[in-house]
Each structure stands twice: as C-alpha cells, then as structure tokens.
UniProtKB/TrEMBL annotation:
Pfam family, one: Nitroreductase
Recorded superkingdom: Bacteria
Domain (Nitroreductase) ranges: 165-233
Protein name from the UniProt record: Nitroreductase family protein
SUPFAM superfamilies for this protein: FMN-dependent nitroreductase-like
GO MF annotations in UniProt: oxidoreductase activity
InterPro entries documented for this protein: Nitroreductase (IPR029479), Nitroreductase-like (IPR000415), Nitroreductase/BluB (IPR050627)
Length: 256
C-alpha cells in the first residue's frame, strides 16, 4: 500500500480525535506517512503521566481499529526507542483483510462513546454482555469483575439490579508500556460496551496515588497493578458528546 488517500487519512484522524482523555486534553500527536501512522505523546499537556499514557493507549486503540476498518491488517510497534522518547507507537497498514463483524461494530461505536456520569437505569446487564466486554480488554491486560452493593434502601428489592458492575483493569508490571496497554484495553472494552448499547464511565484519579493502588490491590485481591475502574450499566438517557479539538491541534506535518 502506498500513501494514505485523503479519505483514508480523514478516517484515521477522526478516529484518533475521538479517543477519550481527562478533560478532553488529547495528549497525543499523529503523523501519517506512506502506509504508516505514528503516534506521539505530548508531555507538555496538563495531565499526569499515568492518565496521559492511558489516553494515548485509547488513541492507539482507535487508530488500529480505523486501519482495520479500512480493510488492512495492522502491525503495531510500541514505545521503546531512546532516540524518540515521545514516540508511542507506529501502526503499519499491511495486506488487505476485511474487518470482522466485531471490528465494524466497535468502529461504529467510536463517535457514540460517552463518559456517562448519570445514575444507571434499573435494567440488568447480562453476564454474557459483561463477558464480552471483559474479553475485549483481557487480550491485552488482566481484568477482574467486582460487584459493588448499592447503598441500603437506594432501590427496593426486585426492582431491577441491586448491584453495580465494575471491571478492574490491571497489569503484571507498572511501567510506561503497561500504562499504554491499559489504555488500549480500556478503550476496546468501552467501545464493546457502547456497541452493546450500554453506558460506561472510568475512574482513574484515585489510582494516581501508590497507597490507593496498593489498597485496591489488597481489598479487591487484584493480582497486579490496577490502572482503571470501568463502571458499566444501562443508560437512563442520552448525553451529548464533548467538544473536540481541531485536527490541526494534534496532526503533525509529514503526510506524503
């Protein structure tokens, strides 16, 4: 495959621009060249390193999915070049291969994904749906499902679910690479939930503190380093999308 066409470039740019980040800071830059898409970390952004890399991982997940939507295999190289400390990943478009049904559904979910802060509806989320969401992340990181009881009296018995489902995403190590992979896994799970018609929100801020991470690990018996909590449920209403930066804010020159 030669250079990206204008339409292909727009597909990649739009997908990356819709990735989640705290306060929609979008701490990444994208450069398209030949049949490669390069993702860089913007360390000048006002985000802590953990959240910055989680966001870059989410952008990478969208980028890989967009290349697959374009009907190409993907080959991804991750950070590790000492000469390019801000380089996060390179995604290379390979031979033609149609996207799977799951990949098409997740790609279609990219513009519909929302950070849901409202109460969940009483409708049940099935074990099968939770399993699909967990599997979307577990190919990259570890996932543990926990159930958090609602406050006593918050809902009468038999009136819908009485517990909130939360997935804890964790890795064996706690390096920059693992932070990035946790972001990839988080976005894949979030898109799967969106494709299933579910709502989700993410909790990361308390996990910035090492003592809190250690406490979560001990309290929930998590066999690794926790990076994010993904809350899942049925939405009670639709919420609008958050404003996004222009592509000029994160696309680097270099397209050929």
């Amino acid at each position: 495959m030669g250079s990206w066409t204008r339409d292909e470039a727009r597909t990649l740019i739009d997908a990356v621009g819709l990735a989640p980040s705290v306060h929609n800071i979008q701490p990444w830059s994208l450069q398209l060249s030949d049949h490669h898409a390069l993702l860089f970390e913007r360390r000048d952004s006002a985000l802590p390193g953990r959240d910055r890399l989680l966001a870059c991982g989410a952008a990478l997940a969208n980028l890989e999915l967009a290349v697959r939507f374009l009907g190409r295999r993907t080959e991804t190289s991750l950070l590790g070049d000492p000469l390019l400390p801000d380089w996060i990943a390179a995604v290379t478009a390979g031979d033609p291969e149609p996207p799977s049904r799951v990949e098409r559904a997740r790609f279609a979910a990219i513009p519909r994904r929302r950070s849901y802060r409202l109460p969940f509806a009483p409708n049940s989320v099935s074990d099968e749906e939770i399993q699909l969401i967990a599997e979307a992340a577990s190919s990259v990181v570890g996932v543990k499902r926990i159930s958090v009881p609602r406050r006593p009296g918050s809902r009468a018995a038999g009136d819908g679910i009485d517990r909130e489902t939360v997935l804890v995403l964790y890795t064996e190590d706690d390096s920059r690479r693992e932070h990035l992979l946790a972001g990839v896994a988080l976005q894949r799970a979030w898109l799967e939930a969106t494709a299933l018609g579910l709502a989700a929100s993410v909790v990361t801020q308390p996990l910035h503190v090492a003592e809190v991470r250690d406490g979560v690990t001990a309290w929930l018996d998590v066999p690794g380093h926790p990076h994010a909590l993904l809350r899942l449920g049925m939405p009670i209403s639709l919420i609008p999308g958050a404003p996004r930066k222009s592509a000029h804010a994160f696309v680097l020159e270099g397209r050929s």
